[in-house]
Amino acid sequence: MTAAPAAPAEPEDLNALDDEAFRLHVRRWIEANYPPELRHPPKRLHWKDNKVWYFKLAEKGWLCPGWPKEYGGMGLSPAKQIIFTEELERWGCARTNDHGIVLLGPLIINYGTEEQKRYFLPKILSGEHIWCQGYSEPNAGSDLASLRTEAVEDGDHYVVNGQKIWTTLAQDANWIFLLVRTDKQAKKQEGISFLLVPMDTPGITVKPIINLELHDEFCEVFFDNVRVPKRNLVGQINKGWDMAKALLGFERIYLGSPRQSAYALKGLRALAEHMGVWEEPEFRDRYARLRLDLEDLKAFYGVYVAKLRRGETLGPDVSMLKICQTELFQRIADAMLEIAGENAGLLGPIEGNRDLNPTGLYIQARPATIYGGSNEIQRNIVAKNVLGLPG
Amino acid sequence: MTAAPAAPAEPEDLNALDDEAFRLHVRRWIEANYPPELRHPPKRLHWKDNKVWYFKLAEKGWLCPGWPKEYGGMGLSPAKQIIFTEELERWGCARTNDHGIVLLGPLIINYGTEEQKRYFLPKILSGEHIWCQGYSEPNAGSDLASLRTEAVEDGDHYVVNGQKIWTTLAQDANWIFLLVRTDKQAKKQEGISFLLVPMDTPGITVKPIINLELHDEFCEVFFDNVRVPKRNLVGQINKGWDMAKALLGFERIYLGSPRQSAYALKGLRALAEHMGVWEEPEFRDRYARLRLDLEDLKAFYGVYVAKLRRGETLGPDVSMLKICQTELFQRIADAMLEIAGENAGLLGPIEGNRDLNPTGLYIQARPATIYGGSNEIQRNIVAKNVLGLPG
Amino acid sequence: MSEALAGTEAERAESIRMIRDSAAAVAPRGGDTKRIRALRFQDPGYDPAVLRRMGELGWIGLRAPEAAGGAGLGMGELCALAEELGAGLAPEPLIPALLTATVLARAGERELLPRLLAGEIYAPTAWQERPDTLEVPGSPDAPRRFIPQAAGAELFLLPVREGGRIALYALPRAGADLALERTQDGGNFGTLRPALGEARRVADDAGALLAQALDEAALATAAYLLGVMERSFGLALDYLKTRQQFGRVIGSFQALQHRAADLRIQLGLTRASVESAAAALDAGAEGAARRAAVSRAKARAAEASLLVTRQVIQLHGGIGYTDEYDAGLYLRKAMVLANQFGSAALHRRRFLRDAPEGDEE
Amino acid sequence: MSEALAGTEAERAESIRMIRDSAAAVAPRGGDTKRIRALRFQDPGYDPAVLRRMGELGWIGLRAPEAAGGAGLGMGELCALAEELGAGLAPEPLIPALLTATVLARAGERELLPRLLAGEIYAPTAWQERPDTLEVPGSPDAPRRFIPQAAGAELFLLPVREGGRIALYALPRAGADLALERTQDGGNFGTLRPALGEARRVADDAGALLAQALDEAALATAAYLLGVMERSFGLALDYLKTRQQFGRVIGSFQALQHRAADLRIQLGLTRASVESAAAALDAGAEGAARRAAVSRAKARAAEASLLVTRQVIQLHGGIGYTDEYDAGLYLRKAMVLANQFGSAALHRRRFLRDAPEGDEE
């Protein structure tokens, strides 16, 4: 791939471009418009820091690559969405507060009423509503069957009581979409519904969780007799989990994107050069193994991208990508720590150089195998749903 | 440790020697008496090949280190038994057909009648009875609860029907000791009894199994209405498994002896020199890891030997040694195969040199993690009986 | 040979599907271990009639140009074929036979070629002077080692350095100083002491062609190993689903489930690696990029095939260690092929040397 | 120092048991993370009063000869103590303080020594000029790096090469060019630019003593890491036994059980490695054998402590990733200490160089 030539006029239909042209077109715009000081942020950014980028995307009409054009999205094919994401990742663009874009929007588009579509979608596009996602609970992480936050009918309202956890950037959001239990008798994932709730409703308390990065990316959100109008229910009552699950499928390939490991491997190389071990044969063999793992991960990822390109849907085997990617990321981070000498103990980067940050990466790599369905759960899925093993 | 000086007279009480003196005494005798052509046999030897060594040991009175002196054994303390075994392993002595010595003898000494002791023990010491062990069954390898070979009372006989498998050197044996089910109603390991059966009893068929070493070390043994006199029952009826299990404890530390891995690591070094990779830093790092694993395994093994020396009994944590030892052995064998180039495909040793036998070792290492309770079972034991994790 | 193959993606996929189908007729996936066992541990270690049949099907000439009587197909097709043969454990030396035929066809030799393409004569290339190498020194008198299934050879193709070039000689088996050693899979390796007096020169300058063909053989071997892994894993999967212990099917134990998942991931990575490397070659990758693609696939296949085949023994427990059970056949085949045309260590080193670094690789 | 300690096996065991008991009073096993948290991320990163208490208990002088006011105890005692401190995550720089005191005591210095032994003054040795080394170049002006808990130092001990010898200088903190960096565990590393004009020479020829004491510090650090691993693993074990998911205690899932078993094995190996190394030193091992024993233990502890502490995060899932939960404290402590006094890679190389080969090792 070569450097982008001079910019042509904006094409009418981005989907009509061939993949390479589309990629270059997107790349050019990102490189010209992304705030350079926000490249490769070491931590997830808060709204106050990333909104400039959110609004730039919104202004360009590129905020919602996956939404249909009629709702203000780019209407990109799955293959083009992947390229779009790859280009964002390649340039080290920060994730925005994107739960409205990635999860809620598609859900409303698929299951919402006309009124919900008209009310909520434009406010996501404008940045007026910033959403957060209330799925996980203290006793229901990978196990939604144990969901306990409940919504009880009371006239034309539901009354919500309970607690959510690992709610990403809840302190930045003014709305939350929730999975709540509406039928206590129902078994397993039945009896769960999907509710939209303004964060300023009385009875909601947000408590940030400081994580090992010493960052408050996640929150606990408490619900104490929170009254939610019934019109804020999306889709059928007691069918919330089915809807939510249907939308997780497409997200899963992103957890397997090799970009994170590719970025980490560059960091490993830079660190090895800094530490003077780059030319050591012991290190080179280890590095070669990691590079080969990365290249094979890219090829493996390519298999799934090709499926999307052919219009196929992804099966449970995409879990394998997530396992590969996250564990490779960790092995690279582990290698960084091991060659860093005493720098492995520093709280910040080496000599203040953000490209030499073994400890930051080591800690950042820890949750990769936990979130998005822990790798233990992913292996269960592979065993049962791919290999057909019992129980 | 230095070379042995000139031989002193045979001491009266070997237990009275200090450990170093005992070790040298044993070493000297082994080096002088062990048939050199049988050192480090690549495969388990048959009776016709190893009986010369059996008789040498018998003649010296050293056949049964663990038996009390009154029954013709050496009466060694556990610590001295370990030294004795270490010295046999160090010199690469072949295992004899030792099931009578190691397993049956102690069982009869502990649980047998006076008549059984008087009849059977001398015939083990003389080599007249060569025993094999009938525990495993096709559907009860690591799972004795599933034992199906049954013994039904008929007058003063039991009638045995069923099948044993993985019976080591059954084709060499003239007696077999059996675990049989005598109570079908009993649960789990209850209802199992211990029977002694001459191999020439009508209804017994022995079928050797060719293993991946292309060797017939193991056999299947079939029982078709085999009549066994009731006097051949050892211990209480339906308590056979308890007795058998009590004797396995002491055996387990041997499965964790570092000698096998130490021998393999020497082979790895010789192969690395032969292949010209000995000086390569990539190889040296790998070799260093394996050597460190071996040295730490030796230290870990030492912890258990020290316990025995202090007269303590070994708990379920000794399973950890077996896991460490067998998996290290395999990793060394794997490394050999990987550096062997195309020699990794040879059926025999490289250039006929028995010290350069990567494929022999690679295949030999496979069952190490299967026999003696598979490593999966061992990990279950550690989790449940050492760490107290639930069922 | 380094030019991109013609055809759309769909046409390529169809061509690859066809070759798989035809392979299944000769070497059914894991279906004929009785035949495999009957041929083990005796000379020549394979069935010459089956090798002839492979010739008739155009497989030996699969990579030879159509003008030379070959099929002119791509690495995609060769890898698909090799994978099927691996899954069927076919002991016939197709890859060495194809190596010789490809080199001679590309070098313009036309006299021997027809009989080689037809599988009438098995003529392995005796290029290797030491273990674990892809280099061809071409010493006139150094013994040539590790010649696959040499017991069945009628002729050896002998690369010999003459000045700066590698010439090729054809040396008849009859009268040649050939020593045979049995291999784990029941076949054999030959060691040949060259005697050029008996040999006939058949090509003048084939060094580059040979290097290229050795790389293709390395990639095809990776594909063969992929087939071996897959069938081996399939055996374990069947066992996990049927074997009972402690009153449960053992495949319901989570530790075994997770191990099976990890092996399945290795299969996925190996397939992606081999197929993307084949696609890169068929798209015209040259020089360092070509070598890097091959090395990546071979390094993966070598390591993963050893891992999978030995873990499959472990998943079976005792029965996996019997020669009667088929798991051992796959283990032994992986032992023979893992390091052929370069070990994982060799290919890792070569990959790091040749692979482009940076964002756009 | 390289002479064997007196005492029977039982006497040694009793002495080691006593030191463990006294440690528990100051640094209860995993019992006081509130104190630990209160000291994090502010200077000096530990409690000077606790360091003084350690001095009063004779810990700083544990390895110093009795004639010099020390306790003259063995590495067995030091490792037991360090292990307890690790289990309690004690942030007080006992090992660096002991390093300085031991070197000065053995070198015959008696002026500073009493206050150092008493813990009144913290005087780390500023020996390190680059990361991941055990060598002491003693350049007069090169910055000395990675000085543990330097924010609390009143004095630095500065090794300086003079001719073929390493002399020791005492450099007061006041006025010294010292830069501080925070560490993951909430403590700090100092970088000191030496200014010998302000320093006073306190020993003439301490190179060999320093090398020996650095090895002892490396082994003590391995023991500290053993304690860290043990408590970290204990946390996970408790969690596995209580946390419910899918209607079951998660410790009943076999995949987690097997992982826990593997971590327990690493604990067993690390303990065996550290204790056998300490015993070897106490039995009088010298030179290469002494270095090999230390390197073996430190290599194991470095790798195993990183493995265990990060696996413990994984076994906890989300909660393990919160700063509020204690699992992270152990992870961070292992990050700081794993490579201190030599990384696993450095010690593996040194082991291979120094360890005797052969049957009787």
UniProtKB/TrEMBL annotation, chains A, B:
Alphabetical UniProt keywords: FAD, Flavoprotein, Oxidoreductase
Annotated Gene3D superfamilies: Acyl-CoA dehydrogenase/oxidase, N-terminal domain, Butyryl-CoA Dehydrogenase, subunit A, domain 2, Butyryl-CoA Dehydrogenase, subunit A, domain 3
InterPro entries per record: Acyl-CoA_Oxase/DH_mid-dom (IPR006091), Acyl-CoA_Oxase/DH_mid-dom_sf (IPR046373), AcylCo_DH-like_C (IPR036250), AcylCo_DH/oxidase_C (IPR009075), AcylCoA_DH/ox_N (IPR013786), AcylCoA_DH/ox_N_sf (IPR037069), AcylCoA_DH/oxidase_NM_dom_sf (IPR009100), Mycobact_Acyl-CoA_DH (IPR052161)
Claim: Membrane is one of the keywords in the record: no
Domain Acyl-CoA oxidase/dehydrogenase middle: from-to ranges: 132-226
Domain Acyl-CoA dehydrogenase/oxidase N-terminal: 19-128
Domain Acyl-CoA dehydrogenase/oxidase C-terminal, first and last residues per copy: 238-387
Cofactor(s) listed: FAD
Entries under SUPFAM superfamilies matching the protein: Acyl-CoA dehydrogenase C-terminal domain-like, Acyl-CoA dehydrogenase NM domain-like
Similarity annotation: Belongs to the acyl-CoA dehydrogenase family.
PANTHER family associated with the record: ACYL-COA DEHYDROGENASE (PTHR43292), ACYL-COA DEHYDROGENASE FADE29 (PTHR43292:SF3)
Protein name listed in UniProt: Acyl-CoA dehydrogenase family protein
UniProtKB/TrEMBL annotation, chains C, D:
Top-level lineage group: Bacteria
Required co-factors: FAD
All residue ranges annotated as the Acyl-CoA dehydrogenase/oxidase N-terminal domain in the record: 15-117
Organism listed in the record: Caldovatus aquaticus
Record's keyword terms, sorted: FAD, Flavoprotein, Oxidoreductase
Name of the protein in question: Acyl-CoA dehydrogenase family protein
Domain Acyl-CoA dehydrogenase/oxidase C-terminal: 211-350
Family indicated by similarity: Belongs to the acyl-CoA dehydrogenase family.
PANTHER family per the UniProt record, alphabetical: ACYL-COA DEHYDROGENASE, ACYL-COA DEHYDROGENASE FADE28
